[in-house]
Amino acid sequence: MPFALNPAAVWPIVLLCLSNVFMTFAWYGHLKVKAAPLYLVVLASWAIAFFEYCLAVPANRIGHQVYSAAQLKTIQEVITLVIFAGFSVFFLKESLTWNHLIGFALIAAGAAFVFKG
What we know:
- The chain is an all-alpha fold.
- 73% of the residues lie in helices and 0% in strands.
- It has helices at residues 7-28, 38-63, 69-90, 98-112.
- Helix 1 (7-28) packs across helix 3 (69-90).
- The protein starts with 6 loop residues before the first helix and ends in a 5-residue tail after the last helix.
């Protein structure tokens, strides 16, 4: 079976994408509701993060059949940047500057070295 069609290679990426959506809302979604008390925001974030963990843990368990732990972490970080960039623009209504995009691209370029064998 080709590497790209191996479920152990594909499912972790899908699950990490979904988990990062939850993670991003847990960590940054509260920035839209600044009037909410901090303790309430923390509790809500924990509740959202539960679903993140329900996706991230299986992603890493399945993915470790194909990827090293360092590769899994690198995949997760690149996914986090992509999802955060979209979240920042569409949910928080913040603009991304060329500096942000160049910085994210440099991080992604560095991540590519983790997969060089």
